[in-house]
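Raw record, unedited: O-antigen ligase-related domain-containing protein
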Amino acid sequence: MIATTEARAPGAPARAPAGGAPPSVRRVRLTSIALVLGIAALPMLMPAGLPPGPGNTGLPDLALIGVTGATVLWATARRLPIRWPFLIPTLMTITAGGIAAIVNDAGALTLVKDLFVLLWAVCIANLSRDPGHLRVALRAFVAIGTLYAAVMIIGFVLGVEALSGKQVDGERAMFTFGDANYASNWFICVFFIARAAGYPATPWRRWTACGVLLAAELLTGSNGGLLALLVAVLLGGLFRLCREGRAHHAVALGALVALLASGTAAALTQIDVQPLLNRAAESSPLLRDSVGRSTGESASSRSTVLSSTVEMTKEQTHPWGIGPGQTEAQMLERQDAFPHEAHNDYVAAVLERGFLGGIALIMLLSVLLLMCVRIARRGALTEEYARLVPRPELFGALVIVFLISGLFYETLHYRHAWAFFGLIAALHLFGRGGDPPGPPRDAGCVFPGGRPPGTPVSDAGDPHDAVAASSPVAVSAASLRSPASSGRATSGAGAPPAARPVPPVKVRTAAGGGADGLRRRLVGLVAGNMVGRIGALGSLGVATIIVARIGGPQLVGAFTLARILPGLLSQLSNAGLSAAAPYFLARDDHDQRTVRPTLAWLTVIGAVVSGLAWLALSPVIYLVFFSSFGVWVAVAAAVPAVTQGFVSVGKGLLQGTDDQHGASLAIAVEEFVFLPLYLALLVAWHGPGALIAGLVLADVAAAAWIARRLARRGFFTGWGRADRRLGRTIAGYGLRGYLGQLIDLLQLRFDMALLGALAGPKVLGVYTVASKFAELVQLPGLAVNYVLYPDFAKNDRATATRRTSRLILPALGVSVLTALPLALIAGTALPWVFGDVFDDAVVPTYIRLAGVVTFGVTGLIMAYLYGVGRPGAASTGQGIGLLVVIALGAVLIPAHGATGAAIATSVSFVATTAALLVWFQHVKRRR
């Protein structure tokens, strides 16, 4: 008996009784039997058509009691602590449900079920501390699941409803689940476990089992399950590419698939597919109950339930929810047309458990996804666990199945879902062996230029290559190689690199040694840049409010024109110097004694040319833009055309001298300093004149602050003579990059221009709100681009390529994580802030968010292309995105208005990312 088995001290040999196995062996066998029986009971919710017990209890809950007891006895006998994965999210869920139940005096029984499903994950995770138990669990899932699928198929073919569980009023098979969607999710789950575990080991047997499982899934007729399966199979392939170190291939392929899917969806909007669906439904009863439901009664009922639950959420007078499991009861009280439980995990969490339930759900999903990422890394699992689960990335794909299915059903309450979550937790808690093996890591300081001041370039090794190779997010500012291995030509104007003194700039030490210190440095720099950008946006917003209060919309228009137009002309006049400066300052194949004065002269020349060009164009500028303000305002705006050039180039100089904190701070200073200066001018002066004067004084103050910071870092010491030939090289590089900036601006604003021309200002206003809200997702990508561009310029191409490859997935993940909370609050935040008239902005916002999540990868690849001296390639990729938005916008905007504009722009973002990844692959393969 398990309960009477004697425990032995760790390390002591087991005493084998006469005629039997040792107690430990018997205990393991009995524990394995309990585990197998528990897994076998998971589908037995309605065996032989019997109704479930009180509170939808059933045979799996009785089996869980046995599995829990066996787990506790097994762990106690070995003196092992019980680990509780997902405890905090589950406790938050129970707490939220308890508060809602107390407030509404209903739904307390559901809280017990929350704890019961958690026990499945706890038991399987703790038992799988022993790899033998994990092997038993994996094989039990696959063998039992395949057997059940075969039984259901046989029953369906023979017409034995006791075996197939076929619906009374239809052809969908449910097996013993009592719900076809539940059965579909079970068979998909077993399919992915079989693929991840590589069981059965013989390929033909494994594919036969997978075929049986897929056939059973199709017989359930679940459209949502089939959609989730297709998406997860695609993602499983993409995750495998990522795990094999081909992340750029995965992102490019994913972008291509998204592009094709978007194009297909756009084409279907112009084609009436309903007759085809009706014809397919009439050809087979099974198709009638699956495909035929996609546009029929099922789709209508789900849409009705969704709209009712969303409306119920908006009607709540308190933030605690209506109570767990109370959706259907509340719908009956409201006398809704289709009272039903919420068919959506996400809506149900917020509606029934309030905002705490929503936070708990986000936390649970975040923990799950983080575990999947950690176990899927190449070399993350120990050899013993890696043999049991050779493709752990497919567990991540299966989690995506649950996330997608959660849009149509409440899958996060399925018992087998939590049993599967226990497998993930087991690999995460006990199967990981630490960081993957790699070259020894070098701890030390990160010096600007990659070496301590005074060290010749020829003696500077590559101290952080090991870190970059072994860490997916480690970014070093020091990874340089010697000129002998660089393959780059030396500027004719400078001395050989080995003999060139290093500019006397300050040394900054990484926060800690090795990969952890470098990772913290990257995170700190990106976070600092985002803070600077957010501060700039905040300052600009306050300034706009002040200007609007003083002069109304007309003065706001003058403020916008006086900020944007001089800046555009300044960038063009100095040949995109702000983007070129970091590259040439960070490189080691030009003499910095020549580069720095050349950049300074180019800045002065560009500012003068910008001012003169503005004066020459002032008649045209006055007629087109400033006719309501007077000629003198148009002429006076020539001054900010001069001063803005010094500020923009100054930020690039801070980037190139490895003063990333200063460059990020300059972004905020540039906008913030305008506020006190403008307020001081308002004491005695109003109107556009004070506005322009404030802009000029702010530029002068910001430029002086930047110059002072550069001087402290020794930028103005040790100068030689400016070089005309080098100046032409810098100007050519900058112009190629500036072309991409113009294209990017056109890509972002073409949809607005066309929408305004075709749909009018009201629709444009709604879409502008959606566009600006969604563009907040770009902040991390912009910060990554700003921080990594000079780092990549310091690296040799091989190091920059390797680090870019490793950062593609983290960059994409950061953008996705930024988009998720924005998507969650968009439905309530936009109408609440701007008014109910902006309800129509919600759908375009969701569409824009779906496309802009790729911008993290876009910013990273553009930083790489700039860093390796290929700004023209970056501009070409952006040009492809512009062509896509023009083509799709011309087709979709006339027919679909703001929604069409959002689709066109989102697809163009994906196309840009795909094109840049193709360029990355091309540059990577070149020597």
